[in-house]
Specification:
Elements (H helix, E strand, L loop, with lengths): L26 H12 L7 H8 L1 E2 L8 E2 L9 H6 L12
């Protein structure tokens, strides 16, 4: 490691004049991950998220691989009713 740590690090937080020495191994990766964590999640419905990210295991599914809502269209309305920010119709309110 190339950075030195200071014994006078403030315990109550940083003041406006304080600086942080980021000259240590992995600092760039740390800052990149931190910025990614501040990025809001995309506005996806549950069915769109499932189509993009869900994968079925060969141990528990007859058809392993990526989930496709088109294979179970009767689930799409139920999945999307659970989506955040979606206005619900009268049947589930």
């Amino acid at each position: 490691m190339s950075a030195t740590t200071s014994a006078s690090w403030p315990r109550s937080g940083l003041n406006s004049g304080d600086t942080i020495d980021l000259a240590f191994d992995g600092a760039d990766a740390l800052l990149h991950a931190w910025r990614d964590g501040l990025t809001p999640d995309p506005d996806l419905t549950v069915s769109a998220w499932a189509d993009r990210h869900r994968v079925l295991s060969p141990r528990g599914a007859n058809e392993a691989g990526p989930w496709r809502t088109s294979r179970t269209p009767y689930l799409q309305e139920l999945m999307d009713a659970l989506s955040p920010g979606i206005r619900r119709s009268g049947w589930c309110s």
